[in-house]
Fold each of these.
Amino acid sequence: MPVCPPVDTIATALSNLLSQFDESPNLRALLALLIKPFQDIENDACALAADALLSNAAGALLDRYGEIVGYPRNGLSDDQYRGALLIVVGARNASGTVEAIITYVALLLGLAATGDVWLTLQPPASYLLQLNTTSPLDAAQVALLTDALEELTAAGVGYDVVEAASATPKTFDVVGLGFDSGLFGAAIITV
């Protein structure tokens, strides 16, 4: 959905002319000439409004969004930072359900919500989040994940995050007896 609805101010002005001036080309040309600057202003205002959206922001404007949200850039590129801000804002408005945590973590890390992210409740007040990634998360990704989980998780609820950084995580007894080939998961966050 566009920020500004497309309005043709020249056509609108010409359509508001009294009917006796319908066949007056000079008056219509003069009116179009007088209205043209207003059309340019409207087009520019709509372009500014579109550029000011978080989904389109870049550079200093994106940094300003980060200040408003309270989330520093920490060396992220514009695309990474925009994505992180969108996730932080979404996470703050999320309900803290299992589905919300899985969805936002998958978005943040570029994983599939089904198959790559699992959440297991651990009564009375914690959960285990398991991630299946193709390569280990770097320090910046772990920091982003930690910040997102702080926003998504209710107060007083603990969590552990385990990552299996392999295209083939170690499984038990899928092919033959014992463990199949792959890597074990490793704990990367404990709260």
Amino acid sequence: MDKKAILEAAENFVKEKLAADSSGHDWWHIYRVTKSAEKIAQMESANEFICTLAALLHDLADEKLIGIGNEAAGLTKIGEWLRQHGVAEDDITHVIEIIGTMSFKGGNQSAMKTLEGKIVQDADRLDALGAVGIARTFAYSGAKGQLSHDPTLVPRENMTAEEYRNGKSTAINHFYEKLLKLKDLMNTDYAKELAAKRHQFMVRFLEQFYEEWEGKR
């Protein structure tokens, strides 16, 4: 199994699939998540090949991109692609397990089972925080036809995965429904440290946003 060739092929595959995405889940999101996953894997002495491969492929079965109810089919296609490129069956099982359980889904998902899964989940969640996370939030809301802010629409609580995906929300509400919760959901020490800093940046942004909204600053 030529791991370098597999990772290069996966990178090209994902670039092709996500090249036209404008919801914040484009190739450059994958790039950032992969870089973070590689760094955390090195610090945690984890299987870097698994972390990198799962990070590269993690959005190809995401219901946000392929539609509600299509995750299983997406995971099957990823498995087929991995087999076609000579990935070992144990590694395929590991990668599919990571991709299939790492999504937030309204906060209803179970804990990751392996260190590599925890690392890739952390890397993905870090990209939802800080300055990049703010930019991605407004890009995603715009792509979904949502308003930036509506003071009459309160953030949702205790959502099912379907309600989280399909219910009415705004970019600002997304901070309360997901982003501000992520700091306390990180698995690794390094991710917790970065998440705390990015969390505070978002808190300051929201303070500024509300003051500007009311014409106070």
Amino acid sequence: MRVDANVRTQEATVAELRQGLFGTMRYLHLNPGPHRQPQWIGTQAWGWIADATVFVTLLLTLSGIYLWVLVREERKAGIVVLGAGAISFVATLYAVMTA
């Protein structure tokens, strides 16, 4: 929802915006607030958490690829765990989209 207010004329306009999942995630990642500056501790924490999540995911991905190349004996178990993770991700995404 977007609210535009004109203090001089004492008028306000309310508009409903439908952004979808990716639009909402982008909005949250940009630290919403007055002039895009994180004024509230929650938006500051959100920025740190979002960035930390990206770095941890990148680290896990790169280390997983490295181990996949080096440890050939564990690949079958890795495929099973990867499949379970993919199923879990799809189920979570479905739950978020239908909620």
Amino acid sequence: MTNNAKLDSLYDSITTCQRCKLAKLEVNKERIRNKIGVNNILIISQNPSHIRTNRLGDEFVMGGFDKLVSPTSSDKLFKLLEKCYITNIIKCSFTNNKSPDDAHELAGVCIDWLLDEVRIIKPELIIVVGSLAKECLPTKKIFEIVPKVNIMYVKHPSYYIYKREQEVIIKTMIDILSKYSTTQMRIM
């Protein structure tokens, strides 16, 4: 079975998961699929948006970067993100994107899904987006699966939008993704 087939099967299981209270929310009756990429980069954000299709008309998770890019604006970042695997630490959406008080506990429910993704993808670079993802990332377990993985942390794109500093995160992500996409990309 190919990696993409393994991920499709995993994501089928995730979309029917009923392990926590978030699964019962109306917003999660239909879940957005994680984005399958082609390179060695895994981007892990907090949770999927409560909006079912993003402004790109995409039904996939974009880790919050869809707020910054489109096929016409920031074209280079968009093309680089299209090659990445993109997922979330918590697999269900929050009501109105408001993080519940027990978000860390909810992340613990989803950790096995994330570790399965890491086992399949075997990334050389993981970019962790946002404070919740950073706080809940099972770093030790990830290093047991892929000992030589590089892990980088960036603030969530919404932080840069709020600060009106979108160009900072766009440039940072282009620099990081360009380096890893060209110099260390693995052919699958």
